[in-house]
Amino acid sequence: MEEFLPNSSFAEYLGTNVAFSSGDVWKRHRRVCNPAFKTLPLHLFSETALKMMDILETIDKTPIEIKSLMQRFTLDVLGKVAFGFDFNNLDNPDNVYVKAYNDVQKIIMDPISILFRTERIPVIRQQNLKKVDKLSNLFKEIIKEKHKALAAGKSRGDLLELMLNANENQDNQMLSDTELRHNMAVFMLAGHDTTSNALSTLLYVLSTHKDVQENAREEVLRVLGDNLIPSTEQHKSLKYLNMVIYENLRMYPPASTLIFRELTEDLKFKDFVIPAGSLLELFIYGIHHSSKLWDKPEEFLPERFEKENANSENYSWLAFGGGSRMCLGNNFSLIEQRMVLCLLLRKYEISLAPNSIHKDGLKLKFQAVSHPIELIFKRRD
Ligand code: HEM
After folding, report:
1. Which residues bind heme (predicted)?
2. 99 CA to middle of ligand 1, Å?
3. With a 6 A CB cut-off, is 184 part of the ligand 1 pocket?
4. Is 280 in the pocket of ligand 1 (CB under 6 A)?
5. Which residue's CA is minimally distant from atom 21 of ligand 1?
6. Which of 16, 282, 327 gets mutated to test ligand 1 (max ligand atoms within 8 A of its CB)?
7. How far is residue 53's CA from residue 273's CA, in Å, rounded to a whole number?
8. How confident is the model at residue 308, as a pLDDT?
9. 20 to 30 Å CA-CA from 251: which of 141, 202, 241, 261?
10. How many CB atoms within 10 Å of residue 267?
11. Please, what's the b/e burial string for 269-294 (b: 16 or more CB within 10 A of its CB; e: otherwise)?
12. What pLDDT is stored for residue 151 in this prediction?
């Protein structure tokens, strides 16, 4: 970040982290982050999922705007699972922590600011840095408290804790507290909107494909029995649910393009040679909708994922990227999505609100959902 946007609030907030680094620096970050994502604490996901169910319990048959509910839910999950902090966005979306987070999101997601380098204007830079400082100070405080808790033998099992443990391993080169903070920031950036968008489109497709919704519900009841929350083993047995999740990520990939790659050598492609040093960006959405790669690409057909890893060999399914830089949080997100579906499908029939703007198909702008999605959750007997 410092290289691309020197002295900016972006560099201050995100610094060098596992996503914005390469070569040996990336390896060092990934080695500490990887083990943390291997043993994800299911209980921290379920605490927040059950809280969301309590909120839905108070609403019956009235349309709910699902994108904002999923935004609130996924922020709380990330805070808890990634670093043991409750943003409390579900109960109180106006609280100071949520505001601090949203203020920074607005800065780093603003294309005008990046395109026109608005931070060259000192007063804008100062304002932005002040907002970034607020959130960074919260992250610093969380890391400090986590060191203390671990020294006192207290454990919650969140990712930060697991990363601090991985830091103790003599084979790894340690990450400093500043580097840990920058990774916390990038987990928020990479893991919040992506999962929240995935869940929103997922619930939309279930509302418009009642046969798929019934099949998925039948599987949830059969596999889980009386359990509300799937165990680690049960997660693996939810085959149809996984197919639905994969098909949704194919049709509506939350990351519609893959992060730039710089060619280290000339690449021969058909009749062209793309010279070393070129920057390449893969258009995931286009690949996922190509009729050369997919039969009836515009239809929602979970069955196409019946054969496990059907499309991973030829890289035609790239929702989480591929190769060594593949998404670190893919399991994190899949667990979250499965858990929400298990809870919702058991209890509710999900329908699209009458007169929805999306009734003839989901409205997209630059491959992202462009309007609110109102859904009705009707309690089942
Ligand atoms: C549906 C949800 C998600 C989608 C669609 C998604 C998608 C992606 C994609 C396409 C990449 C780029 C891979 C590449 O360049 O080959 C990526 C990287 C990454 N994602 Fe995700 N992601 C999701 C959720 C998450 C979550 C929940 C987290 C963390 C809590 C996360 C953390 C990361 C990180 C750290 C990287 C960079 C990995 C590296 O460069 O080594 N993602 N993700």
Report:
1. 327
2. 24
3. no
4. no
5. 327
6. 327
7. 54
8. 65
9. 261
10. 13
11. eeeeeeeeeeeeebebbebbbeeeeb
12. 92
**Joined tokens for residue 17:** 């982290």
The finding on whether 321 has its CB within 6 A of some atom of ligand 1 is: yes
pLDDT at 80: 96
Q: With a 6 A CB cut-off, is 332 part of the ligand 1 pocket?
A: yes
* Residue 97 in tokens: 């922590």
Q: What share of the chain is helix, strand, coil (3-state, %, to 5)?
A: 55, 10, 35
What backbone torsions phi and psi does residue 282 show, to the nearest 5 degrees? -90, 135
Interatomic CA distance for residues 133 and 138, integer angstroms:
8
**Cα(111)–Cα(102) distance, integer angstroms:** 16
At 262, which helix (H) or strand (E)?
strand 261-262
Residue given tokens 């992506």 in the structure block: 194
The answer to whether 166 and 304 are in contact (CB under 8 A) is: no
What is the per-residue pLDDT for 310? Answer: 59
pLDDT of amino acid 311? 61
- pLDDT in the model for residue 230: 96
Find how far residue 157's CA is from the centre of its chain: 19
33 is in an annotated binding site: no
**Ligand 1 mutation target, pool 78, 192, 320, 334, most atoms within 8 A of CB:** 320
Superfamily of domain 9-379: Cytochrome P450 (1.10.630.10)
Map residue 230 onto helix, strand or coil.
coil
pLDDT averaged over 10-residue windows placed end to end, the chain, 381 residues: 79 94 93 90 95 91 94 97 96 96 94 88 94 97 95 93 84 85 96 97 98 98 96 96 97 93 92 94 95 96 83 83 93 97 97 95 92 95 76
Atom of ligand 1 nearest to the CA of 253: 5
Q: What is the dihedral of CA 139, 144, 149, 150, to 10 degrees?
A: 100
Q: What are phi and psi of 157, to 5 degrees?
A: 85, 15
257 Cα–ligand 1 center, Å: 12
Residue whose tokens read 């922020």? 75
Does the C-beta of 325 come closer than 6 Å to ligand 1? yes
